[in-house]
Design brief:
Blueprint (H helix, E strand, L loop, with lengths): L3 H8 L28 H10 L4 H12 L14 H10 L6 E8 L4 E7 L5 E8 L4 E4 L3 E3 L14 E4 L2 H17 L6 E4 L9 H12 L11 E5 L3 H8 L6 E5 L5 H7 L8 H15 L3 E7 L7 H11 L4 E7 L13 H13 L4 E3 L13 H10 L9
Parallel strand pairs: 4-7, 7-8, 8-9, 9-10, 10-11, 11-12
Antiparallel strand pairs: 1-2, 2-3, 3-4, 5-6
Bound molecules: iron/sulfur cluster.
Length: 386
C-alpha cells in the first residue's frame, strides 16, 4: 500500500549535506499533506495507481466539495475497504479548529485553526444579505510587514499549502450551510501575501473552480496583493478570470514606503504600470484597497493625490477605515474624515465605496486573533472548542 503522507514528506526533504558540514539542528517537520491538497486529476492518478477506476475519484470529489463531507465514513457510496484504506493513508484536512468566535449577531464568524505542524491561522466568514464571503489566509505570518498589520509583526513562518487554503474554504462552506446559507465568494485577504505563495494559490483556485466539485466561478474569487508587480503580470496570463485587488493605502512612494515596505522594491509607478498591463490584457477592472488611518493617509490633499493617480484607470476604490491593532499606534479616522476622503475621490470621478470591516470585537483584522492567541499561549495553551 502506498503511503501518500510519507511520499510527500520524502518529496520535501532537504538535499543531503556533506558530513563535514553537518551541525546538530532541529529536524524540519514534514509539511502536513491531506486530501484537499490534490486536484481531481491528481486524485484520479493516485487511485489509478491503486488499480481503481477514475469514477471513484469523482465520487470522492463530490463528497468533498458538494456534500462537504468531513469524514471518510460519510462517503457511503465508496466500498468499506476503500474508505478504510483512504482513512489510514491520508487525512481529509490537516487543519484542526481551535476556536470559533462570532460577532455582528452571528453574521461574522472567525475561526482559528491549528495546522498539522502546530501553526495558527485564521479564517473569517462574513454573511451578507446577498452573499456569503470567506476571507482566507495563505501564509503563516507574512514577510511584507505592513506597518499597520498584526500578521506582519512576527514575519513569515511558512507558506500554507493549497490543501490548507481549500480546507479553510470548505470549513466556511460548512459554517454557511449550518446557517441555511451557501458560500458564494472567496477573498484572499487573510494572513499572508498570496503572490508570495503563487503556485499554491493558483492550485487552490483550480480545485475550487472544478465543475465536478464546488464549481465556484473564478469571478467570485478575489486575490489581493500588497503590490508584487511581476505576479500581477503572471495573473493576467492565467486562464482563471479571478478578480485582482491591490492594497494601495497611499498614492505616493514617500507615504507608501513607510506603510507597505514592498513599495521600496515595486514603487507606485511600477505597480501602476503592472495594473495597467493587467487591465489591457484582461479587460477587468482592478480594485484598490485603501486602509484609512487617522493622521497618516486620510488628509484631503492625500485624497486629491490618490484621485490624480487613479484618474482614467479602470478601477474601483474600497476605502476601509482601519481596524486598529492593540499593539500598533494606528487609529481609525472619525466618520466625517472618512466620508470627506471618499467624497473627494467620487468628486474626481473615481468609483469609491466605504467598506467597514466586520467583527471589530473579535479581532477580525487579519492576524489579530492569531497574534492574541500566541500572546495568551505564553501564559496558557489555547482551549480546544472543536
Ligand atoms: S497587510 Fe497583508 S501583505 Fe501586509 S503584512 Fe499584513 S498580511 Fe502581509
Amino acid at each position: 500500500m502506498v503511503n501518500w503522507f510519507v511520499m510527500e514528506s520524502v518529496a520535501q526533504a532537504q538535499p543531503e549535506t556533506p558530513a563535514i558540514l553537518l551541525t546538530p539542528r532541529r529536524p524540519r517537520p514534514a509539511r502536513p499533506f491531506g486530501l484537499y491538497d490534490l486536484t481531481l486529476p491528481e486524485l484520479e492518478g493516485r487511485l489509478r495507481g491503486k488499480g481503481l477506476p477514475a469514477y471513484r475519484a469523482r465520487q470522492i470529489w463530490g463528497w468533498l466539495y458538494r456534500q462537504l463531507a468531513a469524514d471518510y465514513a460519510a462517503m457511503t457510496t465508496l466500498p468499506d475497504a476503500l474508505r478504510a484504506d483512504l482513512a489510514a493513508e491520508l487525512p481529509i484536512s490537516t487543519l484542526e479548529t481551535v476556536r470559533v468566535l462570532s460577532a455582528d449577531n452571528g453574521e461574522t464568524l472567525k475561526t482559528l485553526f491549528r495546522t498539522g505542524d502546530g501553526e495558527l491561522v485564521e479564517t473569517v466568514l462574513m454573511l451578507y444579505p446577498d452573499r456569503a464571503t470567506v476571507c482566507v489566509s495563505c501564509q503563516v505570518g507574512c514577510a511584507v510587514g505592513c506597518a499597520f498589520c498584526a500578521t506582519g509583526l512576527g514575519g513569515l513562518t511558512r507558506n500554507l499549502s493549497a490543501g490548507e487554503m481549500v480546507a479553510q474554504v470548505v470549513g466556511a462552506a460548512r459554517q454557511a450551510r449550518e446557517r441555511g446559507r451557501v458560500l458564494t465568494n472567496i477573498v484572499m485577504m487573510g494572513m499572508g501575501e498570496p503572490f508570495h505563495n503563487y503556485a499554491a494559490t493558483m492550485k487552490m483556485v483550480a480545485t475550487l473552480h472544478d465543475p465536478a466539485g464546488m464549481n465556484l466561478g473564478a469571478r467570485r474569487i478575489t486575490i489581493s496583493t500588497s503590490g508584487v508587480a511581476p505576479k500581477i503580470d503572471a495573473l493576467a496570463e492565467e486562464p482563471w478570470q479571478v478578480n485582482l485587488a491591490v492594497s494601495l493605502h497611499a498614492p505616493n512612494d514617500a507615504l507608501r514606503d513607510g506603510l507597505v515596505p514592498i513599495n521600496r522594491r515595486y514603487p507606485v509607478e511600477t505597480l501602476m504600470a503592472a495594473c495597467r498591463r493587467y487591465v489591457e490584457r484582461t479587460g477587468r477592472r482592478v480594485s484598490f484597497e485603501y486602509a484609512l488611518m487617522a493622521g497618516i493617509n486620510d488628509a484631503e490633499a492625500t485624497a486629491r493625490d490618490l484621485a490624480a493617480l487613479l484618474r482614467g484607470e479602470l478601477c474601483h476604490v474600497n476605502v476601509i477605515p482601519l481596524n486598529p491593532v492593540d499593539v500598533l499606534p494606528y487609529e481609525r479616522p472619525d466618520a466625517a474624515a472618512i466620508q470627506r476622503f471618499a467624497e473627494i475621490l467620487r468628486g474626481a470621478g473615481i468609483p469609491t465605496t466605504v467598506r467597514y470591516s466586520r467583527g471589530l470585537e473579535i479581532d477580525a483584522a487579519c492576524g489579530q486573533l492569531r497574534a492574541k492567541a500566541e500572546r495568551l499561549a505564553e501564559a496558557a495553551p489555547p482551549t480546544v472548542t472543536g
